[in-house]
Amino acid sequence: MKKLIIIFVWLQGVVLPAIGQTLPDSSNVKLPKPAPDKNELKYNLNESGSHYFKVTFLNQTWLRYNQSNPGTTVMGEPASETFDIGLRRTRIQLYGQITDRAFIYFQFGQNNFNFLSQNAGNRKLQAFFHDALTEYTVFKGKNYLKLGGGLTITNGLSRFSQPSIGSILTMDVPVFAQATVDQTDEFSRKLSVFARGQVGKLDYRLAISDPFPITTNGTTPPAISANSSFAQRGHHKQYQGFFTWQFLDKEAHTTPYMTGTYLGAKKVFNLEAGFITQAKAMWHISEGIDTVYTAMNLWSVAAFLDTPLNTDKGTALSAYAGYFNYDFGPGYIRYNGSMNPANGTSLPISGIANTQGNAFPMFGTGSIVYSQLGYLFPKDMLGEGNGTLQPYASLMYADFERLADPMAVFNIGINWLMKGHTSKFSLDYQNRPVYNADASGATVSSARRGSVVLQYQIFI
Fold it and tell me: Considering the domain boundaries, does residue 36 fall inside one?
């Protein structure tokens, strides 16, 4: 026992102090700083990172209340209102600069997936390739000219005809700008060869597209009538162009997609113009006998502003105003409702399909004025790490030949940007007109309907 006590005392008095002298003073030790969050999934293919491959993921979940159009039915039952949960978009992007000149891009995913989304009874047949393209940079290290081809959203007409949906200002894109969506394209994508580039302040893109037949879009095409519709005979190429004069900062040029709002990271002011044309794209019956083929001619002009207001506070302004002129032939009209929560109506309008649920005449021969405005509040206005708010408003005002009166659809909403576009909530209210049938066709009534949508977006 005495030996154990002696050993213990020796350890206390000699060994432990000696060890303590060799250990660093913890009060002076600097702990390593935590690594910053990575905001991208990127694998460098060379040491400099000029060759790389990147993956992104996006998911937009909707919770929606909708006041139904008159006569709406859901699975055969009358529904004056609906509440649904859905996936507006679920996407995976894979792309990269493989060599100094070779770029490759793929996008895979699904859209508008809610309880009514089953395809021929199989609700699993929804995901598909949106894009699959290759691109060659003609002048090494310069954006003067890129030549590409494949399944692509590289379009003419407008910036909203090829939107980067992860960065849009409003909760949803103005779908009317994707003028042939799911008619002769695949969710606005087409088989195309294209040239695009930036020369000085000019950003341009030109494309020749091979449109899909209307008979393969998954629905029964309308019968030929006195009102124009997409022709079910013949096949002609589509020609497109879009031009932007960039007065201030140049916009990104990695992919064909165009940013919705930069949240104050860039100072952008553009004047924009674009077109889409296709010979004999449409047909109708004249005087009840003759089949007449007409061209589809669409064009637009617009101004786009996205700029910081106070760089120290982080405030910014985003604004857009555009004029669209659509010629689909005489009397063309098409209803559309994003991720429509209804599938039937007891009050159909003669010659017009899919008028139920949240649909309104989104496409037609005539003219459209569209504008949107958003304001970004100071960064961290909700407290450090809680992000900030961005209220917005938009208006679509259309004067379509088939309608007796002009149509106005407006949206107001607010984005809660918890981490920019990476993690954000959007609350949106839309108000739209309701149309009735009368002896002259479709004409506006005094009624209007609304919908409220809460969206959560995650994007990396």
Answer: no
Q: Which residues pair with 291 in a beta bridge?
A: 285
Domains: count for the chain: 1
Strands 333-336 and 238-246: unpaired
| Residues 242-290: tens digit of each pLDDT | 999 999 999 988 999 999 999 999 999 999 999 999 999 999 999 877 8
**Position of tokens 């969050």?**
37
Q: CA–CA separation, 43 vs 55, rounded Å? A: 9
Residue 215 lies in a domain: yes
Check: CB of residue 420 under 8 Å from CB of residue 410: no
Q: What is the rounded CA–CA span in Å between residue 47 and residue 135?
A: 23
Q: Would the CA dihedral through 321, 327, 330, 336 be positive or negative? A: negative
Assess whether pLDDT exceeds 80 at residue 71.
Answer: yes
- Unique residue bearing structure tokens 């296709």: 278
8 belongs to a structural domain = no
Q: Range of 301's domain? A: 45-459
The H-or-E segment that residue 376 falls in is strand 366-376
| Burial per residue of 387-420, b for 16 or more beta-carbon CB atoms within 10 angstroms, e otherwise | bbebebebbbebebbbbeeebebebebbbbbeeb
Give phi and psi for 215, each to the nearest 5.
-70, -10
